Amino acid sequence: MRFVDTAGFVADDAWGALDLAEIDGVTVRVHWTDQPYHWHVNDGSEVFVVLDGAVDMHDRDEGTERVERLTPGRVCVAEEGDQHVAYPVPAARILVVERKGSV
Predict the structure, then answer these.
(1) Is the N-terminal amide bond of 90 cis, ω within 30° of 0?
(2) I want to staple 89 with a disulfide (CB 3.0 to 4.6 A). Which of 11, 27, 54, 77 is the partner?
(3) Res 16: pLDDT
(4) What pLDDT sits at residue 55?
(5) Where are the domains of the chain?
(6) What backbone torsions phi and psi does residue 5 show, to the nearest 5 degrees?
């Protein structure tokens, strides 16, 4: 058993990760970022939990874009085929659970 204090984790580059676990081909990681990711379409389910900071999650559905602000404790579940991009406000630590190697 191990205990990890993620409060002080800062990556060398935006979206750098602290690997916590791999469970049956699923990764559990904490990401730190002060820059947006890029628009992408999920190739599998992804659970996205803001630990600190805030993230504006943009998604597109049939050409319509919307934005949802995620604050600590808010959870976003992106499914396969969901098109989205995350913008930290201004920096954030995010717990991400997804299939290993997923986009």
Answers:
(1) yes
(2) 54
(3) 95
(4) 98
(5) 6-99
(6) -95, 105
pLDDT digits (tens, 9 = 90+) for 32-86: 999 999 999 989 999 999 999 999 999 998 889 999 999 999 999 999 999 999 9
The CATH number of domain 6-99 is 2.60.120.10: yes
Q: What does the pLDDT look like over 84-99, one tens digit per residue?
A: 999 999 999 999 999 9
CA angle 30, 34, 35 (to 5 degrees): 105
Nearest to 84 by CA among 73, 68, 98: 68
Q: Look up residue 74 and give its two tokens.
A: 């808010």
| HSE-up of residue 61 (Cα within 13 Å, Cβ side) | 6
**Six token digits for residue 94:** 């995010």
